[in-house]
């Protein structure tokens, strides 16, 4: 009978060891799942922060463009005025167009003939 009792105790020991191993594996699996979820949460939060920063960057970029526009427009406007003034100086120094010159010559000759 002692052999049967020993055999029953060894079966109980094996069952308890198997149950303990399965419990430890389950606890480790739960811990890994919790760690995975916390990492996913951190990644999700970082994506949200990235989107918020991208939105803020685009708003700041737009604001810098708006604030930089008046000086840039003034520079362009001043350069266009300078170009226009330079053209008008060149045009005034050049001879009058042929059609106007012809009319002036014709009008002057008629006056001289009268």
Write a compact overview of the structure shown.
This protein is mainly α. It has helices spanning 2-93, 98-113. The protein contains 2 helices and no strands.
Spell out the helices and strands N to C. Answer: HH
Number of strands: 0
Alpha-beta classification:
mainly alpha
* Proportion of helical residues: over 70%
- Low-confidence sequence ranges: none
Strand content: under 5%
* Cα gyration radius (Å): 47 Å
How many distinct domains?
1
- Give the overall shape, derived from the CA principal axes: rod-shaped
> Major β-sheet, in short?
none
State the distance separating the first and last CA atoms. Answer: 159 Å
Mean pLDDT: 78
Note the total helix count: 2
Secondary structure: elements and pairs:
Elements: H1 2-93, H2 98-113
Organism: Thalassoglobus polymorphus
Protein name: Cell division protein FtsL
Keywords: Membrane, Transmembrane, Transmembrane helix
């Amino acid at each position: 009978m002692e052999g049967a009792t020993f055999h029953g105790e060894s079966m109980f020991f094996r069952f308890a060891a198997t149950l303990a191993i399965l419990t430890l594996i389950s606890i480790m699996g739960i811990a890994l799942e919790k760690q995975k979820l916390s990492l996913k949460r951190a990644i999700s939060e970082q994506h949200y922060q990235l989107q918020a920063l991208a939105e803020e960057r685009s708003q700041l970029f737009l604001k810098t463009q708006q604030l930089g526009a008046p000086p840039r427009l003034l520079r362009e406007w001043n350069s266009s005025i300078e170009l226009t003034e330079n053209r008008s100086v060149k045009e005034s120094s050049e001879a009058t167009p042929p059609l106007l010159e012809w009319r002036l010559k014709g009008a002057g000759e008629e006056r001289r003939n009268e």
